[in-house]
Amino acid sequence: MSTWTKQKLGTTGKVVTGKTPPTSRLELYGDDFPFITPTDISENSIHVNFPERHLSKEGSVYLKSSLLPKNAICYTCIASIGKIAITTRDSFTNQQINSIVVDESKHSFQYLYYLLKYKTPQIKLMAGGVASPIVNKTSFEKLEIELPDLSTQTYVASVLSVYDDMIENNEERIKRLEEMAILLYTEWFVNPIKNGLPKGWEVKKLEEVTSVITKGTTPTTLKKYFVQSGINFIKIESIGNHGDFIESKFAKIDTETHNLLKRSKIQDGDILFSIAGAIGRTALITKRFLPANTNQALAIIRPKEELLRYYLYQVVSSLDFLNFSKGRIVQTAQANVSLGVLSSANILLPANEILLKYNLKIKNIFETIDEISTQNQNLSKTRDLLIPQLVTGRRELK
Fold first, then answer.
1. What is the CATH classification number for the domain harbouring 373?
2. What is the domain extent for residue 28?
3. Cα(115)–Cα(107) distance, rounded to whole angstroms?
4. Which of the residues 47, 72, 105, 147 has an alpha carbon 20 to 30 A from that of 241?
5. CB 198 within 8 Å of CB 190
6. What are the pLDDT digits (tens) for 243-269?
7. How far is CA 91 from the centre of its chain?
8. How would you label 227-236 residue by residue, b for 16+ Cβ within 10 Å and e otherwise?
């Protein structure tokens, strides 16, 4: 029988609040040390494997007081509270993140990672601030937790980490497949036009190769229409930075609302493209997400033919399309791009025989990605059911 003790989070190690080096000091940025921000932290991975920015050796000296070693727990405490990851090497974070350098002679860093995931609803209630919720370092350190002995912590972590190891391996597979898809798209549709448009290829407006370009709608009375379980309602925050869906961020609506919001109904093969706020997040809808609706921050782009499904998704996901959209942003309360702008975008349309051959190659890649993503969804659900049982001692360990 394990002995459980109450203590403060701050007693498990050293809490470090991150900092951002001046962006004007270019010499502080480079390729040597990961610089982790909340947008780098994915709900699909226990680690930050591909941060957008890194610091140089000069940057590491500048921020030496906030250096994090391997196995530090990074926890977002401003705005998007509760995004959490574990470092894999010496790293730094920005000021939105409080990190714990765990005393591994007394505690399991992995166990504390899962405990903090479980404690996140409680931590969010601690947040102060009006414009943006904040859990300051002092409040974070004072969080009350109950911990079993180290051997129990280690065992619980070993059980739960099996799921995250499988999820992370799957994420690596997905990344490699996505890279294959991009290389294939480049080889077939970017490189051939360097010396002019090949015979049989055309330039069309996006509206000419789609049957629908619209946007979703939001129920007018949120309390009435959003429910605990029901039909998926996809928002910008439901889409990750790399076209992945964060299903824990789906809202839910009832069947009556789903049927009332006809314009926002999504179909298999629809492309979602964010047109407000975080412009350019893109995702491809497959049957496993249906039935579903979306809101007015996401455009629904429906290819006219099944043959265009994967090709148009890669066009809309491309840097060229993103730059086109961002170059036509209208700034109101928040940045937005009109449906008219999307409709008028020039799209290169290859000859049909080229698209047919391309589809034979690309379809298998995207279907495999969807299968692996489904596996990860199921693994995540099982892990998330186990976390509260194991980190609270409600489930007997054998």
1. 1.10.287
2. 5-146
3. 12
4. 72
5. no
6. 778 877 888 888 888 888 888 899 999
7. 20
8. eeebbbbbbb
